[in-house]
Specification:
The chain has 96 residues and is mainly α. Helices cover 72% and strands 0% of the residues. The protein starts with a helix and ends in a 14-residue tail after the last helix.
Length: 96
């Protein structure tokens, strides 16, 4: 699901009528939290990989204010998510 759709769902939850119990509202928001976290991580990882492809790992790390190690972890996470092998000649990963 796209971040835009998730944002719209979150906005809708915050506008639930006052008849909705706070516990029910919290339950719905907690369910959305996991989806939003996953979608945001995927979008960030994809952007980091695009940047690494364009300008390299070290420069990407410097520009986003993170360590080269984190850039590498995000690259690995993205590759695993889309099923790209870790190195040439390896069999493809199972997408998560």
């Amino acid at each position: 699901m796209s971040l835009t759709d998730l944002g719209a769902r979150l906005t809708a939850v915050t506008r639930l009528p006052d008849t909705t119990t706070p516990a029910n509202r919290a339950r719905i928001m907690l369910q959305l939290q996991a989806e939003i976290t996953e979608a945001l991580s995927a979008a960030i990882d994809e952007a980091v990989v695009a940047s690494v492809t364009e300008i390299g790992r070290e420069q990407t790390a410097e520009l986003i204010g993170r360590s080269p190690g984190e850039v590498g972890r995000r690259t690995t996470a993205h590759n695993r998510r889309i099923g790209r092998p870790g190195r040439p000649g390896r069999r493809p990963r199972q997408p998560s």
